[in-house]
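User: I'm curious whether this sequence folds into something compact or stays loose and floppy. Could you predict its structure so I can see for myself?
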Amino acid sequence: MKLTLTQMVTLDGVMQGPGGPDEDTGGGFTQGGWVWSYFDEDFSGFVDENFRRADAFLLGRRTYEIFAAYWPKQSGDPVSDALNSLPKYVASTTLTSADWEGSQVIGGDLAAAVTALKEQPGRELQMHGSAGLARSLFGHGLIDTVHLITVPVVLGAGERLFAEGTLPTAFHNADTRVTRTGVVIGTYEREGTPEYASI
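Assistant: Here's the prediction. I'll summarize afterward.
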């Protein structure tokens, strides 16, 4: 399976708490919920299309807990149908079990565990959010595709997806679409290391 990451970010790269004021207040973050006013049919259509390609999910602990508190109570749409029926792997050093049906905790050597998951047959092993986990996997060169959903706001504070020390990586743009509310959805495929030269 190909490992794909879907992540919402602001223009200044903040990914923290897009879904609501109380979603992630770590570090004193008070600006959660910045994506809602930009959610429209174009945005929703991309999300549904994306979830229809999944054969399994890889989630960090915090994202798993947010999803597990909401999605098992939902049904009848591409997102809930995929999340409730497909395997979910939770990368955590603190959880010992995961109660959401179809969930399994993976620990130990993260890179080895994720490499083994990618070697299973299927289309996409999808990550949604889980920025801390994503940063670890970027460091191992394991993320193949990034769907970067850029919302036209600047927050000036908050946790960023690509923090200082991220492994230098080159991508190519495989697709770009712009929603009616101005959200830019870019799909980027990993190519390797950047090339450097003088202009």
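Summary: Helices lie at 41-52, 61-70, 78-85, 110-118, 131-139. The two ends are 38 Å apart (CA to CA).
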